[in-house]
Design brief:
heterodimer, A: four-stranded antiparallel β-sheet, B: six-stranded mixed β-sheet, globular
Chain lengths: ~120, ~110
């Protein structure tokens, strides 16, 4: 089945620094990847849609200059949290639409727990 | 924007019990998804439904498009079923809109 690898699993960083999170589709090509965020005790929320070879599409209220998305190849999308602050501490997870000949749901990465101190 | 409501928010049951989790949504969709989230955060896709009913092992998912309602059932529940079960909806292959999840605990 489809496998999506996400790294790192967890990261602690100092306020003001930047953190890069990688999402890789291991055995299939992904022209689209989705980035979600989940604050404690809250539901997952779509942050942005990452499109290979073009600019990402951000959801309302998500700062594109703070959450930089790069989808430079068909198997890799990266999310960089720039100038991180404690309020950016959250669980970030990517997902990829899957299916060989037709859309067959989504495969999720394992998630990244970010703590900004 | 679609509103996805799940109930109950928390559910504790004894091993062997039949479990039902409900989900309703407000706007027409292409598909409804049932997901399982484990304590570490990892998410597994259980079902994608656009109509009718699907079964996988002890899990059954149903959807009523007219009522905008879906249910997830677990038969002969087991402690290893303890997790957060999340209902989510999609339009085409766009990103998902999620419910808040149901925290399920199955006690031995």
């Amino acid at each position: 089945g489809a496998v999506v690898s996400q790294h790192p699993s967890w990261v602690i960083c100092k306020s003001g620094t930047s953190v890069k999170i990688e999402c890789r589709s291991l055995d299939f090509q992904a022209t689209t990847m989705f980035w979600y965020r989940q604050f404690p005790k809250q539901s997952l929320m779509l942050m942005a849609t990452s499109n290979e070879g073009s600019k990402a599409t951000y959801e309302q209220g998500v700062e594109k200059d703070k959450f930089l998305i790069n989808h430079a190849s068909l198997t890799l999308s990266t999310l960089t949290v720039t100038s991180a602050h404690p309020e950016d501490s959250s669980f970030y997870i990517c997902s990829v639409p899957t299916g060989t000949h037709f859309f067959n749901g989504y495969t999720f990465g394992s998630g990244t727990r970010l703590t900004v101190v | 924007k679609n509103e996805v409501e799940q109930s109950p928010q928390n559910l504790t049951a004894q091993e062997g019990e039949f479990i039902t989790i409900n989900c309703s949504y407000s706007v027409g969709i292409s598909a409804l998804h049932w997901l399982q989230q484990h304590p570490g955060g990892g998410i597994v896709s259980l079902f994608m439904l656009s109509s009718g009913k699907k079964k996988h092992g002890r899990l059954i998912a149903t959807i009523n498009i007219q009522e905008k309602h879906s249910s997830l059932h677990i038969t002969a529940s087991h402690p290893r079923d303890s997790a957060v079960y999340i209902c989510a909806v999609s339009v085409g292959a766009d990103g998902l809109t999620f419910g808040k999840g149901t925290h399920l605990i199955i006690q031995p």
